[in-house]
Amino acid sequence: MAVSSTQVQFDSLFGLFTYLAIVVSIIVFSLLIYFIIKYRDRPSSPSSRQPDDTPILGRIPPSRGHARTMVLTVSLSTIILVALIIGSFGAIDNILSPPAPSQVCAGCSVLVTGHQFYWNFAYPNGHSDNLVLRVPLGNSIRLNVTSADVFHDFGIIGLDIKTDAIPGRTNVMWFTTYQQGNFTIQCFELCGTGHATMKGILNVVNQTTFQQWYTHTRITCSPSSVAVNQTSQCTAVVSDTSPSGMGLTPKGNVTFSTPALGYFNTRTCTLIADTSKGTASCSVLYTPTAAGTGSARITAVYGGDPTQSDSSGNTAILIA
Ligand SMILES: [Cu+2]
After folding, report:
1. End-of-domain residue from the set 54, 77, 97
2. The domain spanning residue 253 has which CATH number?
3. Which of 163, 293, 303, 316 could join 249 in a cystine, given CB atoms 3.0 to 4.6 angstroms apart?
């Protein structure tokens, strides 16, 4: 069963080329064997005799009067070539026509940046991950691929798709997944000593799980009052609501930002892991240097083994 739209595309194109090649091969080899047998050199025939229309250097070959055969073979070749050209250009057109960012779901347009030697996946809401690219099943996914240092090549094994990651340039690729699970992301261009370890995981989950996870990758914590030069605290509590509690280990990787200009933040954050299916809390201490109306926001990167999921494709998620 195909796992993505790109795989369907390439499988059909490969099938078209293969089946036509088989048909042509059967015709060519059948004729070859037929003529070898029919015109073989018999002991009774004078082997030195040349056919009457043998080409002679410097002379235009005489017409053999086989115009119908020629028209037939040229027509068949043309039909086969046109079928291959239409198939190839159809696939290229599909690959080069990604949906606009406004046409895909929230969190389905991701900036992929190659670094020596890891991939960073940055979502529109500011969440980013250096290992797991999580996407929803059945949605069109748009990836904007670039590089922060040298040339890389971003590819997803199993989905039959890859594109160059070049500094200063963005290549867009897109696909729709048909199967939940994990797929290996790999760099396909030698980019340095750590190239072989430059891997990631494409984690395809159902749409409900994805939207729950995506919404809560960013927890907003709005303090009631913000005083200049006075340290305030912002705390967010999150709990694991995944169906089976898959051994979560909340990570302490938390970023803090304020949308209002003029703020300077110091931060300390502690994520306290409870049980495998429990709660964790994160606190941010910050000292604004100017008054503003913006709220403080905590972005928590959740733990949990991305390679584990239950039979419904749910992976561990934390919800505030
Ligand atoms: Cu590489």
Report:
1. 97
2. 2.60.40.10
3. 303
Task: Indicate the DSSP class of residue 69.
Answer: H
Taking the centre of ligand 1 as the mean of its atom positions, its distance from the CA of residue 110, in whole angstroms, is 20
Could you tell me if residue 85 is left (phi over 0), alpha (psi between -120 and 50 degrees) or otherwise beta?
A: alpha
119 CA from centroid of ligand 1 (Å): 10
Q: Which residue has the tokens 């940055």?
A: 122
Q: Is 115 exposed, middle or buried (0-12, 13-18, 19+ CB in 10 A)?
A: middle
Residue 300 has pLDDT above 60, yes or no: no
- Comparing 90-99, 121-130, 199-208, the range with the smallest average pLDDT is 121-130
Residues pairing with 282 in the sheet: 236
With cut-offs at 50, 70 and 90, classify the pLDDT of residue 59: confident
pTM: 0.69
Query: Rounded mean pLDDT of the chain?
Result: 76
Distance CA 159, CA 99 (A): 18
Which phi and psi (to 5°) does residue 13 adopt? -65, -45
Domain containing residue 18: 1-25+68-97
Number of domains within the chain: 3
Cis peptide before 117 (omega within 30 of 0): yes
How far away, in angstroms, is 63 Cα from ligand 1 center?
59
What distance in angstroms lies between residue 150's CA and the mean position of ligand 1's atoms? 9
Q: Are residues 193 and 117 in the same domain?
A: yes
Q: How far is the CA of 82 from the centre of ligand 1 (A)?
A: 37
User: For the residues 61-66, what does the mean pLDDT come to?
Assistant: 73
Which residues lie at CB < 5 A from ion ligand 1?
187, 191, 195, 198
Q: What is the DSSP letter of 34?
A: H
Helix (H, G, I), strand (E, B) or coil at 142: strand
